[in-house]
Amino acid sequence: MGSIDGLDLGRFGIYTFDFEFQPAAQMRESILELEEQGWRAFWFPELLGREALTHAGYLLSCTERMHVINAIAQIWPRGAQWTYGASLLLADAYPHRHVLGLGFGGYDKPGITPMTAMIKYLDELDALKTPNPAPKAPIRRILAAYGPKMLELARDRSAGALCYKVTPAHAAQAREILGPDAFLGVEHAVLFESNPDKARAIAREHLDIYLNGKFNIAKFRRLGYSEEDITDGGSDRFVDDFVFWGDLDTIVEKLHAYVEAGADHVTIQVIGIDPGQSAMPCWRMLGDALLPQNAMRAL
């Protein structure tokens, strides 16, 4: 269940941008409560200023059992040497609790393809030698991937893939490419709002950035979305597929579709939260519905 090289993340986890807007004390309080609720995996991006591996180290230091996954650490801000050194230290200090998720970052670099850049970066990582003590626990890494070639690279050069802004249909395709053994994690956005007009307005605001990048647009087209689906904020069909909105039961049922499609782990991004505020009430509801120990207590 949700295993990366024997590391049990559970079937469902938490993904959030929210910590970018919170002071350290609030982050510590939040991740401690998530750990107490029984969540086993916390995923976060590198986007708005907080350096990925420093951030991971802080969250690991706040907790005892939580697995902390960079989702993703971008390959551009750090040379491979420094990514390797930091990951080595985290594996030593917090054995079997950190996962290094690497990604191109979605930015268009003229003359450089994501595949070329990632292969070069992985080659540099794998060639490194260091006087730093080797940890007893291995460095575990996965790659951000959604296209067929990057999924193949994730299968061959890492423990597996995280697929961001995808659908259960994509998860089924990714599982075929990855094979039965590589880890397949997927992110999906959810919104606790049952009014269709209000829910879709919030969802469109969230999805707008992904409808303006060529790599995501190519992904959406491969999934069968038409030009009409991915222009003018996205069709209702598109929005409903990429943000699961509604009440708890509706959201939970749709999330389980990923497991049926072959995903090992689903990391859930709650949207519609104002900057500086916490999604904790939503995380509590999701935990009560999705975490095995909480589901058993409810019986």
Residue share in helix? 40-55%
Total DSSP helices: 12
Strand order of the largest sheet: 3-4-5-7-8-9-10-12
Looking at the overall shape, the CATH architecture of the largest domain is Alpha-Beta Barrel
Largest sheet: 8 strands, parallel, barrel
How far apart, in Å, are the first and last alpha carbons?
Answer: 21 Å
- In the CATH hierarchy, what is the class of the largest domain? Alpha Beta
Order of helices and strands: EEEHEHEEHEHEHEHEHHHEHEHH
Q: Please name the CATH topology of the largest domain.
A: TIM Barrel
Can you give the mean pLDDT?
Answer: 94
Query: For this structure, what is the CATH homologous superfamily of the largest domain?
Result: Luciferase-like domain
Task: Tell me what the structure shows.
- The protein is an alpha/beta fold and 299 residues long.
- It has two domains: 3-192 and 246-298, TIM Barrel, CATH 3.20.20.30; 194-245, no CATH class.
- Helix content is 45%, strand content 17%.
- It is built from twelve helices and twelve strands.
- An eight-stranded parallel beta barrel has the order 3-4-5-7-8-9-10-12, surrounded by seven helices.
- The mean pLDDT is 94.
